[in-house]
Amino acid sequence: MESCILIIQQERKMKSRLSAPSLIVILFPSSSAIAASVSSAASADSWGLIIWIVVFAATSGSAVLNIAAMRSWDRNWGLVSGLPLLGLLLWGVLIFVAKQLDSSSHELWALEIFAWAMINLIYMVTAMTAKRMFVKSDCEKPTNS
């Protein structure tokens, strides 16, 4: 309703004469366009929030896997499991600094962080498999007594 009043006031300021059919043509498309832009903005905000939650959950879960491995594995394997966390920290600092210098850089930062989480999961599965294979081969070696 407010958009209709604004349009009518603007038309009065222009001191032009509008017939009823032309006023209807102006009012209805503009009010639907305003409603569409408001609903699309709300939709975009809700999708942004959902994406942020998914990225945060995936990254947190992936990082927790590294932290648990660092705590339970011995020194060398713990270092192997901690390397991706160092990579995430450096990448996060890079994104933050780049965004401060140029706001148009790293527009897809959420995708970059999500990609790290997925690559980290593959890395950790590989590390766990390698560790298991090395431990198994060490157990199968004959002991010299």
Helix-strand layout with pairing:
Elements: H1 2-13, H2 20-72, H3 75-101, H4 109-140
Describe the protein in words.
- The chain is an all-alpha fold.
- It has a domain at 48-140.
- It is 86% helix and 0% strand.
- It has helices spanning 2-13, 20-72, 75-101, 109-140.
- Mean pLDDT is 77; it is low at 16-31.
What overall geometry do the principal axes of the alpha carbons give?
Answer: elongated
Low-confidence stretches: 16-31
Query: Could you tell me the strand content as a percent range?
Result: under 5%
Largest sheet: none
Structure described in brief:
With 145 residues, the protein is mainly alpha-helical. The protein contains four helices and no strands.
Task: List the keywords.
single chain, elongated, 145 residues, 4 helices, mainly alpha
